[in-house]
Amino acid sequence: MMKRSFAICLVLWVLLGLAPVKSFAQYDIDQFFLRGRQMLIDGKYSSAIDNFTTLVRIDSTLYDAYFFRGIAKYNLGDFIGAERDFDKSLSLNPIYTPAYHYRAITLSRTGKYEEALRDLEEAVDLRPSYTGLYFSRGVTYFLSQQFDKAVEDFNKFIRKEKNEPDAYLNRGAAYTFLGDTLKALEDYNRAINLNISDPEGYIRRSRIYFMQGSDSLALADLDKALKLDTANTFAYFNRALIRYERNNIDGAMEDLDKVLEYEPGNALTLYNRALIRSQIGDYNNALEDYDRVIAVNPQNVLAYFNRAAVFLQMNKYRDAMDDYSQCINLYPDFAKAYMNRAYAKAQLGQYNSARRDEEIAREKVKEYRTKTKDSVSAQMFADTTKRFDKMIALDSDFAKRDFSNNELLQYRDVDIQLKPLFKFNLAEKRQEKRAMDGRYESIRMEDFIDDLPVATQLAALRHSYEPSELGKAVRHQRDSISKLISDIESREEAIDALLYFSRAIVNDSQNRYNEALGDYDRAVNLQPDNPFFYINRGTLQAEMIDFISSMEQNVQVLSLDNSRTARARVNENRSTYDYTPAIHDMKKATALMPDFPYSYYNLGNLYTLSSDLPEAILQYTKAIQLYPNLPEAYYNRGLVLIYLKDNEKGCLDMSKAGELGVEEAYSVISKYCIKKQ
What we know:
Number of helices: 33
Helix content: 55-70%
Largest sheet: 3 strands, antiparallel
Radius of gyration: 31 Å
Mean pLDDT: 81
Number of strands: 5
Low-confidence stretches: 1-27, 374-378, 395-415, 463-470, 551-575
Strand order of the largest sheet: 1-4-5
């Protein structure tokens, strides 16, 4: 795991030097470009996306605006969106070298190495003198395990850029995988000489020393790396391996604990700590670590195998048998799993089944012994002499095989909440109309808002205003409207429906549900053809249900687990709540105003809460068709699609939501839309 260079980070000084912005007649265009580029340099990627999105709305032919927006998306982990923007940039300017270069980088991050190499070839043809292309192609060759070609490209880069330490680090890694540790050591020494304050060089060099049996030198390098960067988890991890080999169990555990302090979900570290814990008899904590590893990566055969061994030590034979069965399901040639399952079955009195497992194991061993040393990797599991409880290094045989243990995933359940329903909310002041902000425009809605006696905005808010947020202004507005209504009632005059609606909004903002609902009912009775009344009443009815369910801790959420599948997680005693009245009101709103996208969006939410996900997708789609710049609709539809395991479409929606300003989309993208390598 080559943390910095092999992650293919975008270096902005190269980028900004590569892609000069052409002059435009409009000063505002220049300002947008300058501001957007500065946002990229400052790492304000979401703001940069907003900026460049505004630019392409002004002029959809600005190929470099799409390019820069693609870079911002890349840095947020939205590789799908980045690739799409680079595609657009190249469709507008087919000879724009930077777009080929950075589309290649994006493609390599998603494992599309052949496509990435084709883009880099095109870029080299267009601009053979640009040495940065050889660096990127070298990394791509490395990731596709073409180490000899990687060395060739790093050689070309180093001939022109002799003082770039990352190039030596990367070439050294390629030499390591080619088995040439002497050249690798030379490159790491060179990288350290060029940048003595970078811990990466010491960490890489320590691996070579360790491979050569020079443990003391390796430890000295790791100690140096940790002095330079006390939070470097890779250094702690490697030092733990060496300490373990030297039987310094306490030191190894201390280092592994340190890694997990910074990265609680580092699966490989959890696996290694579980091994040590099981070896020293700390079985319960070992099981906890193995459980977390398996939650992150349910295909990790050795986690099941070693967890089963812990179960055997605890005399939990049925649990052990189940884990050995899982090992066999994952790798049918795992002879040792058959043998150990036979033992567990015998302890449970299943003697016939145990004998059958023993026979299968012997057959696997016999087959294994007929194979050559170059046989397929799966045959290693038939080798009963091989130990499977050794600590695992990042670049070990295990990491190179199809186990994905080098995935450093964060272990945490993520409760994915829908973006909330839209309704007319109390505002601190009346909203000013602005050009080019992507706002939905509706003359009917604007006139309605202008006619209300209180400042109002249409928005999706998670919670109503707390009294402290609007303070005395809220209470003053409520008191003023109530007094006005009382005065009119005392004169026995007809009350305008907008007054009731306005008081309902104020009561709604203070969670006075019953009072608000009463006023919404009065407004609807007085003016039954107003779609906005139904929107707010329907939303309030849904919020009342959510409030009741939250008090009972029965809120149903979309929850995506760490194996990138989805499940509904609810309280076992969850009551069933009926959203029919809210749906009825929202349908009435769509009938009265068929071109208003927010009613369909709200229906999408209500159908999701009612577990009618196909209908929810249909309603979100209608909202998007009416208003293609409604970010919440893309976000929520994306969540539902991912929940239904249609990740490809869901991730496209997430990318669009992020592009339109939903920052949370990028955390979903990074967790469920990036193929781990």
